[in-house]
Amino acid sequence: MINKIDVFSSAYSFKEEDVRDKTVVIIDVLRASSTMVTALQNGAKGVIAVEDMDDASKISHNLDAQSFLMSGEKNGITIDGYDLGNSPLEHTEEVVKGKTIILNTTNGTKAIRRCSLADPIIVGSFLNLKAIVEYLQKLDDEEVLLVCAGWRGRLSLEDILCAGNIIYDLCGGNLPIEARDGAKVAFGLYEKFGDDIENSIKSSNYAIRLKDIVSVDDLEYCCQRSITDILPALNEGIITDINGKAK
Questions:
Q1: Mean pLDDT, the chain, as a whole number?
Q2: Angle, in degrees to the nearest 10, between helices 181-193 and 157-170
Q3: Which long-range contacts (CB under 8 A, 24 or more apart) does 215-222 make?
Q4: Is 27 exposed, middle or buried (0-12, 13-18, 19+ CB in 10 A)?
Q5: Cα-based torsion angle of the residue sequence 231, 236, 237, 239 in order, rounded to the nearest 10 degrees
Q6: In a domain, 242, yes or no
Q7: DSSP secondary structure letters along 168-184
Q8: Which of 62, 159, 195, 247 could form a Cys-Cys staple with 43, CB 3.0–4.6 A?
Q9: What residue numbers bound the domain in which 30 lies?
Q10: Preceding amide of 232 cis, omega within 30
Q11: Would you say residue 102 lies in a domain?
Q12: Could you give the C-alpha distances from 80 to 83, 91, 158, 196, 230, in angstroms and in order?
């Protein structure tokens, strides 16, 4: 099935029709994907990914005030009036257990919204890498698109590396010559930088942009591989763990 996997370098590198009825894995390592995976691991009831503050406000008005938390950032900075930022380390069990998280981010949640015609939509990160690979291995002959959120339409190294790691593991490190170009690029970058994920990500453009906003602990946490079996998937507007392994 590796020949039916392609990689989009950002949320704006494709037309929405391109993903219709295809399996999509959304990747936003820094930090929306990592935050969603962590929130579900720590017992959040679900995550609602929104495109902007207006959407977040409309949804919140239809929920009981005690049942949800507002999380998110704009350009890396916690949105004024929100309960939490986009840091996975803020989404602890004590804070999020039993809550629905309304998440609004600069890149990751917008990528999810742009893929609304896909089915299914899965959320991937380094944190749940093994779970993503195992899920994709079970697919028969379906087309799979790894959608990197990027940064405002630009490529982000950390997302491409994660996509490359997924492809590398799926093909056992031997990419067939007939693989698609996007898969070849992601695979090649992972081969070059995959031996030192943490330092590669810390030196990425996006990490450098965030260095005065995001803690080093956040970056290091997001670089950990396969620390959870959580497999977030979008179902009727809410992202939940389809592996059923949340606390």
A1: 95
A2: 100
A3: 215/87, 215/89, 217/89, 218/30, 218/31, 218/87, 218/88, 218/89, 219/30, 221/34, 221/88, 221/89, 222/29, 222/30, 222/31, 222/34, 222/88, 222/125, 222/126, 222/127, 222/158
A4: buried
A5: -10
A6: no
A7: HHHTTT---TTS-HHHH
A8: 247
A9: 2-233
A10: no
A11: yes
A12: 9, 17, 27, 35, 29
Whether residue 81 contacts residue 26, with contact meaning beta carbons closer than 8 Å, is answered with no
3-state secondary structure of 162: helix
Q: Which residues contact 120 (CB under 8 A, 6 or more apart)?
A: 23, 24, 233, 234
Instruction: Tell me how far apart the alpha carbons of residues 166 and 149 are, in angstroms, rounded to a whole number.
Output: 15
Decide if 246 is inside a domain: no
Instruction: Give a yes or no: residue 162 inside a domain.
Output: yes
Q: What is the pLDDT of residues 122-168, one digit of tens each?
A: 999 999 999 999 999 999 888 999 999 998 889 999 999 999 999 99
Flag whether pLDDT at 246 surpasses 80: no
Strands lying side by side in the sheet with 121-124: 5-8, 144-148, 23-27, 121-124, 232-235, 238-241, 46-50, 100-104, 68-74, 77-78
Per-residue pLDDT at 60: 94
How far is it, in rounded angstroms, from Cα 241 to Cα 229? 9
Question: CATH number for the domain including 145?
Answer: 3.90.1560.10
Domain count, the chain: 1
Q: Model pTM? A: 0.96
48-82, pLDDT tens digit by residue?
999 999 999 999 999 999 999 999 999 889 999 99
**Residue 206's closest CA among 42, 66, 34?**
34
Task: Give Cα 156 distance to the centre of its chain.
Answer: 13
Residue 84 CA to residue 79 CA, distance in Å, equals: 8
